[in-house]
Amino acid sequence: MYNPLLLLNQTTLDKMITAGEIYFVRQDYERGMSPFDKEQKASLIFTPYKTVEEAELHYRSLSDKHRKIYNAKNEEDYAKLKKAASQPKGYSSYINLIQLDYDLHISDQLKKRIRYYVKNILGWYPSKDEGFDITFFLKYGVLFAELAFRQKKKQVKFDEIEKII
After folding, report:
1. pTM exceeds 0.85 for this model
2. Could you report the average pLDDT of every consecutive run of 10 residues in the chain (165 residues)?
3. Residue 54 lies in domain
């Protein structure tokens, strides 16, 4: 699975908090699991919010066992966020920020699936010179792709593109 997210670290955590994003929703993040890391127990994503209402809306949309809301102004919660940011052994903690160079990490096989989706599912036929744009975003911890070609745009769960054979 393609994973364009940044690992959570102390600097990023502190910048989010300084910007007023003090509520963090934690949930499972399957895309962060490595099939080669036999010691990995879980992969988690942390999504920051400025208001508790936004965080609760996200939280209520989840059903996974690791879901939790942290308030960074609470000492106990902040200590747990710091621990997650330290990347403890067996756990991968991500922040819902897309890497700036995400396009450099897309495999040739995945590029073929994206092109297949654009041509055969969307019915768009960009020339080689013209191409199309793809950007990624997250909604409640789910990776979406926004595809754009000329004046057309389509948002799709990235899973739908990845599952193409």
Report:
1. yes
2. 92 97 96 84 96 97 94 98 96 92 86 93 90 91 93 94 86
3. 5-98
